[in-house]
Design a protein that fits this description.
549 residues, mainly beta, six-stranded mixed beta sheet, five-stranded antiparallel beta sheet, 2 helices, 2% helix
Length: 549
């Protein structure tokens, strides 16, 4: 970790928030927001940009005042990878595997003034680890594994199953979905998926502690709050774990090569909350037409059964208001809910860039339904903002929530634009590398479409100046359109030929007012060009709002 301090960063005037919600250099997927005192703490996995792998970093956290969700403070590393004895041993031996041994999605719960971090080590067979701290910002210290009671240990028990020599019998230890023996082909154990301890989520409710986990299904086990990690047998069933939600999408004989989709099937990532006396389980699910979504189910008992409620948000808006295909990159997502001043928000992650390992925390306000559920929210650029963002401001192009080629195909296609991180003299200091970096939209193929939702141009319809900051486009033009990529064109911006640095290009717009989605349609000479920022100004002879560098 670099010694360079990462500080608070805000976007937008007043209380405007955008997606991603953290500084652009930070990649925190599997977002779990928790309210402790008057601050929201954001926990999650930690991707490192450009590695091509997921969850390669130590656990870090950011926090924001409940009164200002636009300004996030970096709290630092809260738990290092080498603090876990199993993972630490793999690292020391040089055998750590990105899929098996990275720190996957965690959760944190407060009990009697102490904070407990629950986490899994990749797809390994090491069970669920627990760490404890006296502050929500850590540092956390390793406590042990979620474990069976001593009465379950066989006579002469030797802890050689999960690779952790602490004398405990880890609950779920020894159960692996995949293995990669040295010098041998990967082994797949698909039938273990239903028992695999994956993506823990915890809730402390009326003196009882419940741990949820799931891969292709969801289970819950009660833990003893006296030590926070010993499982308690369910008196009603005689079992430790109960199946609470089993809309399985995976066929055991073919996992993970094939996925059978019947409606929306749970993949992973359970997150539990209690709302108005009901238990709400949020999880990542997949479905037809490349639907990758956050869904929810509800129950009146923490052990279920949970009934499917619907989609909360879908990457690229597929199936939102009848949309038939996603208009942004799709893939896994994972998150949790939080209530702020009477509004429930869902935090989840978007897929940033073209490769794995560049996922970022995003937010959306949820709208309740009359039956106590939630509507399918729109996938937008808004972050915590519940209203459209002020148009007359300078905004980063990387807040785009629509990225398609001229035919509406998303970044899975080589012809579509995508967001990437680049070194930039005027960028933010990345605490991992110490470099100044910024996010830009690149791969500006002919007719590339970059969309932002939503901007408010006010009630007074007037012409304005629109500016775009670009690099290495080789010249060309940019159409600026409202509400759709083929909607009304309010400006046609000529792009200057390539220059050594960034160039601001401007044009006057037609008179515009009201709330709109904004689409930039690029026609460039170079596909390697970069779209950095855009701005609107209503002054009659507006100067450039963005410097030429």
């Amino acid at each position: 970790m670099s010694s360079i301090e990462r500080t608070e960063v805000s976007y937008g005037p007043d209380t405007s928030s955008i997606n991603p919600i953290l500084p652009s250099y930070e990649y925190i997927p599997d977002a779990e927001p928790k309210l402790f005192g008057d601050r929201v703490y954001l926990y999650g996995s930690h991707d490192l940009a450009g590695t091509g792998n997921m969850c390669e970093g130590d656990y870090v956290t950011w926090s924001a005042s409940v009164h200002d969700l636009t300004s996030w403070r970096y709290e630092g590393v809260i738990f290092r990878r080498d603090q876990d004895p199993f993972l630490g041993a793999q690292m020391a031996a040089g055998t750590a595997d990105p899929l098996l041994h990275n720190l996957f999605a965690p959760d944190v719960v407060e009990v009697e003034g102490r904070y407990y971090l629950y986490y899994g080590v990749g797809l390994s067979a090491s069970g669920i680890g627990v760490a404890v701290a006296d502050s929500p910002a850590g540092p956390f210290e390793y406590l042990g594994r979620v474990r069976f009671p001593d009465s379950e240990k066989p006579a002469g028990w030797v802890d050689d199953v999960d690779g952790i020599d602490d004398g405990d019998m880890a609950f779920g230890g020894g159960v692996a979905v995949i293995e990669r023996p040295a010098g041998k082909r990967m082994r797949i154990h698909p039938r273990n998926a239903k028992r695999f301890m994956y993506d823990p989520s915890v809730i402390y409710d009326e003196g009882r502690l419940f741990l949820y986990y799931g891969l292709a299904s969801c289970r819950v086990v009660e833990l003893d709050p006296r030590d926070m990690r010993t499982v308690i047998r369910d008196a009603a069933t005689g079992e430790y774990a109960s199946r609470v939600l089993v809309p399985s999408i995976m066929v055991p004989s073919t996992w993970p090569g094939l996925i059978r989709t019947r409606g929306m099937g749970m993949a992973n990532g359970p997150s539990i909350r209690k709302i108005d006396g009901r238990y709400v389980l949020v999880y990542y699910a997949v479905g037809p037409r490349a639907t990758n979504a956050m869904c929810y189910a509800t129950a009146t008992d923490p052990r279920g059964p949970f009934e499917y409620g619907g989609i909360l948000v879908s990457l690229g808006n597929v199936r939102h208001n009848g949309q038939k295909r996603p208009t942004d990159k799709v893939g896994n997502t994972h998150g949790g809910m939080i209530e702020i001043y009477g509004t429930w928000y869902l935090l989840y992650h978007r897929q940033t860039g073209r490769t794995q390992g560049s996922r970022q925390a995003t937010a959306v306000a949820l709208t309740p339904t009359e039956d106590g559920g939630f509507q399918h929210a729109e996938y937008t650029s808004l972050g915590f903002s519940k209203d459209a963002l002020p148009a007359f401001h300078r905004w980063p192009a990387a807040m785009a929530c629509v990225l398609t080629d001229a035919n509406g195909r998303r970044p899975a296609r080589k012809s579509a634009p995508y967001i990437t991180q680049v070194e930039a003299a005027d960028g933010l200091v990345d605490g991992q590398s110490g470099l100044r970096v910024a996010q830009v939209v690149t791969n500006l193929t002919a007719g590339a479409i970059i969309g932002v939702k939503h901007l408010d141009f006010g009630s007074d319809a007037r012409a304005a100046t629109v500016s775009v900051l670009t690099r290495r486009t080789g010249g060309g033009r940019v159409e600026v359109r409202l509400d759709a990529s083929d909607g009304p064109m309010i400006a046609d911006i000529p792009l200057a030929p390539t220059t050594p640095g960034a160039t601001t290009s401007t044009a006057r717009t037609a008179a515009v007012s009201g709330r709109h989605a904004l689409y930039f349609v690029f026609h460039c000479a170079q596909t390697t060009g970069e779209f950095v920022e855009f701005a609107f100004d209503q002054t009659p002879t507006a100067p450039d709002r963005m410097p030429t560098t």
